[in-house]
Amino acid sequence: xxxxxxxxxxxxxxxxxxxxxxxxxxxxxxxxxxxxxxxxxxxxxxxxxxxxxxxxxxxxxxxxxxxxxxxxxxxxxxxxxxxxxxxxxxxxxxxxxxxxxxxxxxxxxxxxxxxxxxxxxxxxxxxxxxxxxxxxxxxxxxxxxxxxxxxxxxxxxxxxxxxxxxxxxxxxxxxxxxxxxxxxxxxxxxxxxxxxxxxxxxxxxxxxxxxxxxxxxxxxxxxxxxxxxxxxxxxxxxxxxxxxxxxxxxxxxxxxxxxxxxxxxxxxxxxxxxxxxxxxxxxxxxxxxxxxxxxxxxxxxxxxxxxxxxxxxxxxxxxxxxxxxxxxxxxxxxxxxxxxxxxxxxxxxxxxxxxxxxxxxxxxxxxxxxxxxxxxxxxxxxxxxxxxxxxxxxxxxxxxxxxxxxxxxxxxxxxxxxxxxxxxxxxxxxxxxxxxxxxxxxxxxxxxx
Length: 449
Ligand code: GLU
Ligand code: MG
Description:
Elements: H1 5-14, E1 19-25, E2 31-36, H2 38-47, E3 49-52, E4 76-81, E5 87-88, E6 95-103, H3 114-129, E7 132-147, E8 150-153, H4 162-167, H5 169-181, E9 186-191, E10 197-202, E11 205-206, H6 207-227, E12 231-233, E13 247-254, H7 275-286, H8 288-295, H9 301-304, E14 314-315, E15 317-319, E16 326-328, E17 337-342, H10 348-364, H11 382-388, E18 391-392, H12 397-406, H13 408-414, H14 416-435, H15 439-448
Parallel strand pairs: 1-6, 15-16
Antiparallel strand pairs: 1-2, 3-4, 4-6, 5-6, 7-8, 7-10, 7-11, 7-12, 7-13, 9-10, 13-17, 14-18, 16-17
Helix pairs in contact: 1-2, 3-10, 5-6, 7-10, 8-12, 10-13, 12-14, 13-14
The protein binds glutamic acid and magnesium ion (MG).
């Protein structure tokens, strides 16, 4: 909905909205914000709401990191709610929500703002590629409940089971109705492979809107589950033996005449993809290792991306192949491709921005992705991988972040401030993880040694 500030003021008055939540995402992917009253709204849209810059130096555990870039003396940025993102929360009383761009004291984009980085890159796509980038975020997520102090799947539904959706009808319908009322269009609802695991597909739309929509999904899934006495989680691998939850991003490019610029039915490889599409994919593969640090940014992410799980573990692309990093859907479906390396713990603005930056690098340097993989690459030996030029994705957060720290192209794309602080945050999380002694570890070693 392309509301202006005046539209928003009018709706707030007409609908008697009393509370407006203004929100943005930190680098760890957590949603942060404040609630303002209608009398402050006009001023907020004009001048923004101040937050300490130090909030961007927090990690996923909500802890301030050592040696932060933004200290107590580093002042504030201002979160300016974007009127185009105004939505009424249909499941709350007289409450609306707006997503923000972050600006500095002079009202210029704050260099640490991920949403701004994405907007800048999307403009570059338009001038370089002659079309607009579209995306559809496809998130898998679990519904859990607490049983004797343990978290367990909320039901025991099987893959594509109509029963899963039936058992959770109350949640599913409330969730989908809420999304639709908030302007997020949904296409399909499925019971996924894991018990209690669902997938709700969002309709493709302009990349910025699609990314905002993912933020809405992430928030509403948890809030409605909580209202129903359940725990909704996008965490990538809640259970060692059950399917992980991926976040797949479908990417396409259309010009103003509605032509699909990634489609070409004269493609000699028979995939009906254009040269632009191949080069974009080439860029995604070239930056695959560091894209993973952005798309799958948690210690838990790497427990999901294991061979033989339908989550990618290798850097390659292929048609109709679920073991690859970039999947080309079957030819009966519209020409596009799907990046399968994300999960729900990412900051979607950073993920979209880095996907676009990697693709643009492929376009600028005419990077060809090589031959598509048509087999399940999960079980290739080292020798076979070498022969085919297929590399493994990072196996840990540490490895992924090391790759990101070498990636000057992504650094430039999201801005050096974000890149540096992000790497520090993720290294702090890794460090905390390596220090942690789990119950499992204690039991195992205390009994044997
Ligand atoms: N659950 C898998 C993942 O973690 C994806 C399964 C599917 O292709 O739907 O990415
Ligand atoms: Mg799925």
